[in-house]
């Protein structure tokens, strides 16, 4: 699997928050990721305000997508994302429930896996407008499961519930 050695690879991430200062939580998560040895955030979408998904009553989310380059093993990158979530105060209680931050590994080109801890591409990636619209902003020609992200985004249900909220929180100078 790519990412098992020190060879750099691209990874696409989904970020979301619906508790506390949602935008600040996403910015902090991005800054913490970018500060880690072996991870460089390269591009971040605008922030999008979205209705919750999964049937649990809760506040609206802010969501974003990011492209990063990493030379960490994919499983170590997943652990890093979970550690950052914990550092920022995430407590896992209710599945698809409210959270101060969520960082999902969405796709690593050339990598597919299905396991208890990690499935790539993300199993709900092509069903979620709140993931596809931000991802289409930064990687419209990226092909996932045989189809460009822009095409997935154009046909996904729920597009009307995803509204651009703020320009990208990422500055090429590395300031968050």
Pick out its properties.
alpha+beta; 27% strand; 4 helices; two-stranded antiparallel ribbon; six-stranded antiparallel sheet; 176 residues
Account of the 3D structure:
This protein has 176 residues and is of the alpha+beta class. It contains four helices and ten strands; from the N terminus they run E-H-E-E-E-H-E-E-E-H-E-E-H-E. The chain has helices at residues 22-35, 74-87, 129-138, 149-155; strands at 9-17, 39-44, 47-50, 61-70, 102-107, 113-114, 119-120, 143-144, 147-148, 162-166. Strands 1, 2, 3, 4, 5 and 10 form a six-stranded antiparallel β-sheet that branches. Strands 6-7 form a two-stranded antiparallel sheet. Strands 8-9 form a two-stranded antiparallel ribbon. Helix 3 (129-138) runs antiparallel to helix 4. The longest helix is centred in the N-terminal third of the chain and has 14 residues, at 22-35. The protein starts with 8 loop residues before the first strand and ends in a 10-residue tail after the last strand.
């Amino acid at each position: 699997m790519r990412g098992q050695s020190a060879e750099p690879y691209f990874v696409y991430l989904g970020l979301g928050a619906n508790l506390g200062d949602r935008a600040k939580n996403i910015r902090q998560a991005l800054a913490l990721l970018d500060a880690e040895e072996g991870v460089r955030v390269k591009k971040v979408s605008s922030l999008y305000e979205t209705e919750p998904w999964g049937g649990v009553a809760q506040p609206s989310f802010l969501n974003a997508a990011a492209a990063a380059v990493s030379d960490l093993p994919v499983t170590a990158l997943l652990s890093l994302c979970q550690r950052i979530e914990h550092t920022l105060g995430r407590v896992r209680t209710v599945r698809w429930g409210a959270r101060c931050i969520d960082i999902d590994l969405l796709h690593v080109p050339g990598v597919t896996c299905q396991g208890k801890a990690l499935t790539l591409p993300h199993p709900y990636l092509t069903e979620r407008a709140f993931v596809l619209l931000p991802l289409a902003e930064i990687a419209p020609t990226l092909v996932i499961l045989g189809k460009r992200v822009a095409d997935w985004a154009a046909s996904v249900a729920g597009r009307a519930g995803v509204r651009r909220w703020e320009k990208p929180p990422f500055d090429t100078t590395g300031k968050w």
